[in-house]
Amino acid sequence: MSKQTFLQGTLILIVAGMITRLLGFVNRIVLARLLGEEGVGLYMMAFPTLILIIGATQLGLPVAISKRVAEAEANNDQTKVKKILIVSLIVTAVSSVIFTTVMILAAPFIAKNLLTDPRTLYPLIAISPIVPITAVSAVLKGYFQGKQNMKPQSYALVIEQVVRITCVALFINLLLPYGIEFAAAGAMFSIILGEFISLLYMIHMFKRKKLIKIRTRFFTYLKSSKDTLKELFSIALPSTGSRMIGSISHFLEPIIVANGLAIAGITSSLATKQYGELTGYVLPLLFLPTFITQSLSIALVPSISEAGATLNNKLIHYRIHQSIRISFASGAIATIVLCLFSVPILTYMYGTSNASHILIFMAPFFILLYIQSPLQAALQALDLAKQAMWNSLIGAAVKLTLMFLLASNPDFGIKGVAIAMSVGVVLVTSLHLVSLQKAIHFSIPFKDLVKMILLLLMTWGTGTFLKKIYDTIDPNLFLFGLVLIGLTIIYIIFLFLLKFITKEELKQIPIIQKFI
After folding, report:
1. pLDDT tens digit string along 134-155?
2. 272 contact partners, CB below 8 Å, separation of at least 6
3. Domain range for residue 502?
4. Which run of H or of E encompasses 247?
5. Same domain, yes or no, for 387 and 473?
């Protein structure tokens, strides 16, 4: 089984993430065009419940599997790897049965009493079969990540999105005549098919590449895996705590927003529309660069775990610095573009620019989100998952409290929700940095902070100049594309001038190796 370096594995995940994110945006455009704002609102209100159940089912095992497999690989202990797989499969199988049942039984109550819109029942029921599928898939992804082979997961992500985008329009058109709630359920069902086909691919790759026979002496290994279970749960439980906090927060958000806006005197239909604009239009744009930061995070866990197993502290610090540098570089350009070109981006993508003021407000704060994932991954890889969990809990509590207080105030309304989300991002990222500083004396060098500020100022100045040109000429999609391409090229030049990307890092990329 091929093993990649940290940057090679990250690059593979980034390319796959870029493809899937672009396909995901096509999927959202289809949803927006076919379902409309109210249909997207129903879809997005039901979606956090799915994330919550999946988080509860996986119990944080993907990160734990990745870390423990990487450590076992560093010590060449294949017996340990097999025990990790067996224990993980048993745990996720049991939890998936439990939480799928809970989701189906609780769906009517959630739809009627919590989400305050009975029509969300159908999307909730439609999505329930995905739970056991994602449970098994998560174990296999963690295994491949621990082996530092990112190709199977990357291909699976692309397959999932291709299947989803192929099916979503079909199901929406078939079910829309029966009502918008059935069309939203059809959109949810397309997610199931995508996950299922990608799982079949992962199983195929595991069988073709595996060095471990799971069924051989299965119960013998299971009986002797008590210590392995403890080691996994020492990472998995705090990790799932962090994820569950995020999932519960996302689950509560539409409930708090719906009730808060109702107190402010906003009707249920309008509240659903405004929430759909924020979560269906604005947040996907803000989260666009996270496919890069998530790729870095996935590759970072086994890399730091391997370095920790060999007591290479210098490499640990270097990997964290490297991840922050690359994450910031990926997020800075997105922040500038979203601030300067919010109206044309929303108009060309969704046919409306109603949420442009919210996008402009949130974008500068969300630049800290792009370094948050690598910081959390570093904490988990360093056996500091508990600290990461507490940081997430504090951030979620502050965010949800502010969300209700501001959303229920007629002077803020949906803008208050945007403020609360931004405060949560800033707080959690800051707490992660403090935790790393206390644990390993990690800090971002002053020189790097100066470079970050210079990068933002130089890109903003260039972007403002290009925007003036765009505004003076008859605006159109082709010209807009040329402006973005030009800004991106100039931005890449800035990255090299400020040494956000080094020659040594470029040498690790196979295609570029031939030219250096």
Report:
1. 888 888 888 888 888 888 888 9
2. 38, 41, 42, 45, 117, 258
3. 445-516
4. helix 226-263
5. no
